[in-house]
Structures are given as structure tokens and as C-alpha cells.
């Protein structure tokens, strides 16, 4: 059974989706309803749901804004009357994109897609074991970078952290130099040694040797102090904090 969050600012649409969910998945639990970006962020902060069904245009903005303030990997079934947001939707955990008026058969297909992928989500032990099996041949000992017309290679062990900013992914070295890389953070996470690197946030993967200290932050989160210093504040979310501390202690968190 699963718990879901319903994000919808139109009462009629909310009631209609809720009715379809009761019919299609009678054993599932509605964990919460939100009609604004702010309320959605609060619900996600409680970490009490497995999937989110969300309208895109809400009373106070686009639901994509939630992912700017919440560090979450919850899968999302997007519902909207507009087709212009499809590409953006699949960049923020989207598993389906349903155009209104929503057909029950389309919602059923989206729910089945969620159920098929549920056992192999990044947080599951099965997915982690599968990823480790693939990583054996994909782990990179070095990265190729470009400085103007010059191509260079840097050892992975010389990388203090990888981070994304302004639509670019940066490779930041211990010597303070940084280079743009074509790889996404999701891809890099599968390339590097999980014993040395950890995905500390949605936009940062840090080398254990770059973490000078970590301090408790409000809301059950952790604040990291890196050396060299990261251009932006690095906060480990409450959802990642326990795994991060186990990793810091030398445990193989992939076994969890």
C-alpha cells in the first residue's frame, strides 16, 4: 500500500482525482492535500508520502518552485491543462504528465508506472545493489575538462566536490580551480566511488576529504563546511541526514 499527496488548487478537480484514486487504489492513503506551493513544501517536509499527484499552476505559483526549497526525490504525477511544462516536469522527479480533463485510464497507467518503479527507486537496497554492479566498470579515475581551447584531465581524487549552479555542473578541485563538466550530478553519482563521495544535496556531491566539519541545522538537517569553500551553502536535508552520518562513520550506506 502507498501514501500519496494531492496538490490541486481547484476544489472540483481535487474531488474528482480523489474519487478516481478511491476507485483505482482503495487501499492507498491520502496523506495530505495542498493548494499552494507553500503548503506543498510543508507536506513534503513531513516526509510522509510515497508519491505526489500535483497540478502545475497553483494559487501562489508553479509547483516546480517546491523543488527549489525542498530536497526531495518523491516521484510526481503531474496534472495540468497546459502542455508547455512537460520537459520541465520530467527534470523534477516527474513519472507522468496528464493533461486535464484527466481520464481514469490515464491515471491508472501512471499509477502502474509508479508501482513498477517503486522497488527500484534510488533509496531502495535493490536499486543500490544494481547500481553498484554497474558502477564497477563505470567508476571514473579521471575527468576530461576544457579550459578555453585546451583539454585537460584531472584525477577524481583531486575533486573536492561537484555542484550544479545556473544550469551548469561544476567540478571543483582542492586547489581551488573549477571547470564545467558535461555530466549531470545524477550521472556523476554513478561514476564515483560511494565510499569517497556522497550526494549531500540535490545540487552537490562532496568528497569526504573536503568536509571540514558538519553541524546540526534546524529541522533535523545538517550544515556542511567544506574546504575549499563551496560557492553556495550546502545543507543536508533531513531525509539524507541519517545516511550521511552513517557514511561519515564509514558504513556502506548502499546496503541499507
Number of strands: 17
Mean pLDDT: 86
Largest sheet: 5 strands, parallel
Integer-rounded radius of gyration: 20 Å
Structural class: alpha/beta
Gap from first CA to last CA: 21 Å
Strand content: 25-35%
What's the SSE pattern? EHEHEEEHEHEHHEEEEEHEEEEEH
**Unreliable runs:** 122-137
Structure description:
The structure is a single chain. This protein is α/β, with parallel strands linked by helices and 256 residues long. Helices cover 30% and strands 33% of the residues. It has eight helices and 17 strands. It has a five-stranded parallel sheet with strand order 2-1-3-6-7, sandwiched between helices. Strands 12-11-10-14-13 form a five-stranded antiparallel sheet. The longest helix is centred in the middle third of the chain and has 15 residues. The two termini are 21 Å apart.
Short description:
The protein contains eight helices and 17 strands.
Core attributes:
single chain; 256 residues; five-stranded parallel sheet
Which SSEs are present, and which pair or pack?
Elements lengths: L2 E5 L3 H14 L4 E6 L2 H9 L5 E5 L1 E2 L2 E2 L3 H4 L6 E5 L5 H4 L4 E6 L4 H15 L6 H14 L3 E6 L2 E6 L3 E7 L2 E6 L4 E4 L3 H7 L5 E5 L2 E4 L3 E7 L3 E6 L7 E3 L1 H11 L8
Parallel strand pairs: 1-2, 1-3, 3-6, 6-7
Antiparallel strand pairs: 4-5, 8-9, 10-11, 10-14, 11-12, 13-14, 15-16, 16-17
